[in-house]
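pasting for ref. prot 1 ->
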Amino acid sequence: MNEITDQHIKDATIEAIYWWNRTENYYHEYFKKIDDMIECPELFNFFTQKVFENFLREYAIRRTISAGYKSVDSLLSPS
């Protein structure tokens, strides 16, 4: 078994930070503004098609819901 060095730990830390910024933080920044986006139909449409759809796909949620944007939009419905 290979020994884990300080360099391995540094490299893994940098990679973890990169992926956190690329995914979790990226989505967090959008989701914390969801109330404002719901109020603007054009912005909400962009969000559902370009951001939320990708979120569902990346986290393997999209494959468990029916096709089309109507089912995706229903996940964000305030009711």
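and prot 2 ->
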Amino acid sequence: MLYWIITRPDAKKATDQRRAQALSMLKIEFKTNLQRAKQYGQALMTPDDDLTPFYPLRFTRGAWNALKESGFLPQLEDVGFIYELLRLNEVIVVVNKSLSSVRSAKAGKNTKTKLVRYSKKAVKECAQIEAYLGPILAKLEKMNLPEIILPEELEDDGNPDEDDASDGEVEKS
């Protein structure tokens, strides 16, 4: 009985499960962002082309923001991994601003020079996101995290599916 009182294995197990679920959510978000980084980097090579199929033209940070606000980071023991997560978040904030500039330049008139400049900058930043996400996702894969299945409405990230792209219809969110 004393062992249960002192060690509280149920509480530790519950904490470990919550941490694993939180990391699983981040993993899903990071996979989405890796896919977007590849798509955006390729699409922005020719900024004069129609970019609407790639909208929302931003990286998602919802799971990251929720976990950061909940005090999740101090629960992680690997300081190097925490640094990688913080650095990735910083780069995503910067590239989201660049992508916003691309959208604004695309909507404006007589801004071809700005559009090209902003697009080149965003392409470099998308490559930087890919470089950060590779090692992070590799670490998350090794952690044997639980599989989280999202409801269909949460999985729709605003980008058209391959089926949607074939009919030429784009769903806006």
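The chain has seven helices and no strands.
The helical segments are 2-7, 9-43, 62-69, 79-107, 112-142, 152-155, 162-167.
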